[in-house]
Structure formats: C-alpha cells, structure tokens
Design brief:
Layout: H1 10-21, E1 26-31, H2 37-48, E2 58-64, H3 71-79, E3 83-89, E4 95-101, H4 113-124, E5 128-134, H5 143-155, E6 160-167, E7 185-190, H6 195-206, E8 212-213, H7 215-225, H8 229-245, E9 250-251, H9 253-266, H10 271-279, H11 288-297, E10 306-307, H12 308-319, H13 329-337, E11 345-346, E12 352-355, H14 360-370, H15 378-392
Parallel strand pairs: 1-6, 1-7, 2-5, 5-6, 8-9
Antiparallel strand pairs: 3-4, 10-12, 11-12
C-alpha cells in the first residue's frame, strides 16, 4: 500500500490515475487472482494524501464485496463512511456544527442507481469522492445496477469516480449490460508480471536491509512465482528469513529451498486445503498428486492453457514411467468435473485445460519439491518450463 514499494505496472497506474482525474470517467480493474489488483488500488490512497497532490479534497472509500451482499447493502456501507459537515445558524446567530454521514442526508429508500447518483451529486458540490469496490466478482446479480449507476454519474457529470476490482478474464465476467458505458468506463487489465517487474519487488526490498541475493537464488524465486507477485513476496520473505536465522546477510539458493518449506507450512490452511481435496484418495496407489503436478509443470499458451499431451510429457518425467493419455484422462476429468475434488481445473476451449485458481499452480510445484516428487534440479526444470511459456507469449 506504499507507492515507494510498488513495482512495475506503470501502464495500469497511468490509466487509473487518468480515470480518477477525469470527471465522468470510472474504472474497472480485472485479472487473475494474485496478480496485484488490490495493491494497485491501495496505493492511490497514499498518493492522494500527499500535500503536493492535494489539488482538491478527496473522500476515498474502499469496501470489499461479499457473497451475501447486494447493491443496496454495499452502498449503505459506502455512504455511511463519507462524512458531511453541516452548518446551521441558531436563534442567537452562533454557528452550530454537526457531523453526519452522506447516508444520513439521503431520503431515497431503497437505494437505487438514481438515489446513489443524487447522493454523490450532493457531495460533489463540496468535494470529490473516489469509491473503490474490491472483490466485486463475489457480489451476485449486481452488474446491471452498477452499470446503471456509472452511466447516471457520467451523464450528470458528477465529481465522483467508481473503481470496480474483481477476478475475471474480461469485463463480461464482472459486469453485465456494459455496452452503454464503454465510453465512460476505463477497462484496466492486470496481466501476470514479467520477470523484470518481479525482480524489482525483490531488489527494492532487500536493499533496504543491506541484504544481497545470488543470481541463482533470485532466478529460482522468479521462476517459481509464475508471474504472480503474491509468491514473489512470500518466497522472498521466507528466503531472507532463512538466511538471517543462520546469521547471514546474503541469500543463497539453499535459502530459497528452505523458504519453499516455510511457505508450504504457511499455506496449509489455504492452498493446502484445496490441494488435499483435489488429490485425496482411499487408494494408496493413485496418480492424483503426480497428474496435478504434471499439469502445474506443463507449458502453457497465451491463455494459460495446456493440453493432455503437455501433461503426458511431464508425467512421464515425474514418474520415470511411460503413460499414454488414456492412462490419466480420467484424472483430468475428475479435476475438471468432480465437485468433491474442488473443480481445480477448467476448460477454456476444447482439448485444453487451465487452473481455476492460478495461485494453486506455484503451490503445487513447491509441494512437489517438499513431497519428493521432483527429483531433478528444480531450477533446470523451471528453465525448461520458462521456454514453453516464452513460446506461448504469456509471461516472459
């Protein structure tokens, strides 16, 4: 949440800044889990609170959507966080100051797009407001109402900006009826980060503590992260801590390997639970863990998708046996369709698969290391995977 520690994303920062500074413009930030969408919107609070940025007073409110929330309930929460200072004159001509919230001055019940527009218009005569709604994808059946709200605000030139943040491959997955608001909605896609941006995350932080890192250790962290800054932060932290516990200020490859074990232990209640659900089986001799690891190690195309042939190649290397696609196709089908296994895979197109939750992919690779499924040199293995990613054009 500090701009000084925010790495990369200059194009996205520029687009969001432009939307906030342009009356009638709003924004939607979308992308996979773990790519840094929340970090992007968080830094703007710090930016706009700096004295040299105070061209006008800005009320900034950030809320998170949830499964049990609708349009009216989330706007009730938002408006209750925006103060309104009202001044009234008593009979003795002494100013009386009373602080209320924007919700208190609304007479429209229930809250509709029109009511929200009038409330923010009332405030816009005094100051600008920026409303950030994170995890917007968790809200059900709210897309059309938000589209109407954004259109009303834009048509009436209200000095307020709405920023929607959510998981999705495109805007259609986050908001319905968006065709009429294309002109006033800036669409900001957050792709996975490239290695240069990920490297900046590590180097900008370790130099603050006079810590150094070997190129081999750094490369291993970057490749394990798979373009997801969440894992760059996690592995960077755990690798440095591993070195410091041995009273060293230089991070080596063995510290990253120790950091992998520490990261796995920290993820037991999140990724670990999803992994166990996907691979659990009453049969001792099963291939669920091996097949899922082969999926995680497979080369992907520009959409993050891989084929059964990719999985076969990796599975044969992991097991040192020869498997044909029919030998593990039922495993892929269960990862895809079996509810008891959590639907860890999805099918974006025919004959292709990808992970439903991208954060699971690096976890599975690290789990493969700690469980002893990866016998060969991990860095060499990831280097080969990187070449596949490069061919597909996704990350590197």
């Amino acid at each position: 949440d500090k701009p000084s520690l925010f790495a990369g994303r200059m194009e996205q920062v520029s687009l969001l800044s432009s939307a906030i500074q342009t009356r009638g413009q709003h924004a939607i930030v979308y992308g996979e889990r773990g790519v840094g969408k929340t970090s992007l919107v968080n830094i703007f609070a710090d930016i706009y609170n700096k004295p040299d940025m105070q061209t006008e007073h800005v009320d900034q409110v950030k809320v998170n959507g949830s499964n049990d929330e609708d349009f009216q309930s989330i706007w009730s929460r938002i408006l209750q966080q925006i103060p309104v200072d009202e001044k009234s004159i008593g009979y003795n001509s002494i100013p009386l100051h009373k602080t209320r919230t924007l919700y208190d001055v609304i007479t429209d019940v229930p809250l509709t797009p029109g009511a929200v527009c009038r409330a923010l218009q009332y405030l816009s005569y005094i100051r600008k407001s920026v409303i950030i709604i994170d995890e917007f994808d968790r809200m059900k059946n709210a897309g059309t109402l938000f589209a109407d709200t954004i259109k009303d605000l834009s048509d009436n030139s209200v000095n307020a900006t709405i920023i929607l943040v959510g998981v999705g491959r495109n805007i259609d997955e986050l908001i319905e009826e968006h065709a009429s608001i294309d002109r006033c909605l800036v669409q900001i896609q957050m792709p996975r980060m490239n290695v240069t941006e990920l490297e900046q995350i590590i180097t900008e932080r370790i130099k603050l503590r006079d810590v150094t890192i070997s190129q081999e250790a750094l490369r291993l962290i970057l490749l394990l992260s798979q373009g997801l800054p969440h894992y760059t932060h996690l592995l960077g932290l755990e690798s440095v801590l591993n070195a410091l516990q041995e009273l060293r200020y230089h991070v080596e490859r063995k510290d990253v390997e120790g950091g992998i074990h520490r990261a796995i232990n920290k993820s037991k209640q999140t990724m670990g639970q999803i992994y166990r659900q996907a691979t659990n089986s009453p049969k001792k001799k099963n291939l669920f863990k091996e097949v899922l690891l082969a999926c995680a190690l497979s080369s992907v195309d520009e959409y993050g998708a891989f084929t059964s042939s990719d999985v076969r190649e990796q599975l044969n290397q992991i097991t040192h046996k020869t498997y044909d696609i029919p030998n593990f196709s039922q495993h892929l089908d269960k990862f895809l369709n079996d509810e008891t296994r959590g639907h860890v895979l999805q099918r974006p197109m025919r004959f292709k698969y990808r992970f439903s939750n991208p954060l699971l992919q690096p976890y599975i690779i690290m789990r493969g290391v700690t469980d002893g499924f990866i016998a060969e040199d991990l860095l060499s293995l990831l280097e080969r995977k990187e070449q596949g990613l490069s061919a597909g054009g996704l990350l590197f």
